[in-house]
Amino acid sequence: MEILDVVDELGVPTGERVERDMAHEKGIRHRTSHVWIVRYKEKRLQVLLQKRSAEKDSYPGCFDISSAGHIPAGVDFVSSALRELEEELGVKVGVQQLICCGQRKFTFEKEFHGKHFHDNQVSNVYILWLDREERDFCLQKEEISDVRWFDFEECEQNVRENRIPHCIYMEELLMVKETALENGAS
Q1: What is the reported pLDDT for 32?
Q2: Fewer CB atoms inside 10 Å of the end CB: C or N, the chain?
Q3: Which residues contact 178 (CB under 8 A, 6 or more apart)?
Q4: How high is the pLDDT of residue 175?
């Protein structure tokens, strides 16, 4: 059972806590960390997407952020981002390697596995420069079935035109692109 901090619109804990399932059932605002892994390959900006496992409680089998996760009660955005990277992908990096893109707030409601799901998140978004081949990631199979590098332009087009099953918000993808282009070296 995961316990999450209830947060205000800026992602600051209110002092209340809630079980993850209840947060999604009732649409209670909570925090997540999102890390997008990027690299240059043959002078083209690429982004690593994970494919969510078929058992995930939301968007099973869809392409998603490289690494993302709910933030347990009492934990901060960056610590959670680093923990998720290691758990989901076997990537161990330092705090200084994460580049903050900004914060996003969003809410949505949908049904998955015959159950109502109402998400209400405040997410800090980061990029991580990492040139590693797909086969060299150590995937947490309960969470991720596969990872795949996409040329960034191809990823944008796939998301915009729904060419692949995904749960990626274009607004966030564009935040990532802007930060990568400002902070990258080819």
Answers
A1: 95
A2: N
A3: 101
A4: 96
Q: In DSSP terms, which residues pair with 119 in a beta bridge? A: 108
Amino acid letter for position 19 = E
Q: Which long-range contacts (CB under 8 A, 24 or more apart) does 53-59 make?
A: 53/141, 53/142, 53/143, 53/144, 53/145, 54/145, 55/142, 56/143, 57/24, 57/112, 57/113, 57/115, 57/117, 58/24, 58/110, 58/112, 58/117, 58/119, 58/167, 59/112, 59/167
For residue 26, count other CB atoms closer than 10 A to its CB. 11
Which residues, 6 or more positions from 158, have their beta carbon under 8 angstroms from its beta carbon?
A: 63, 150, 164, 166
CA-closest candidate to residue 35, choices 104, 124, 122: 124
Mean pLDDT by 10 residues, the chain (186 residues): 95 96 92 97 97 88 96 97 98 97 86 76 97 97 96 97 96 96 76
Enumerate residues 6+ apart whose C-beta is below 8 A from 66. 35, 36, 37, 47, 48, 49, 50, 89, 128, 147
Tens of pLDDT, residues 38-87? 999 999 999 999 999 998 877 899 999 999 999 999 999 999 999 999 99
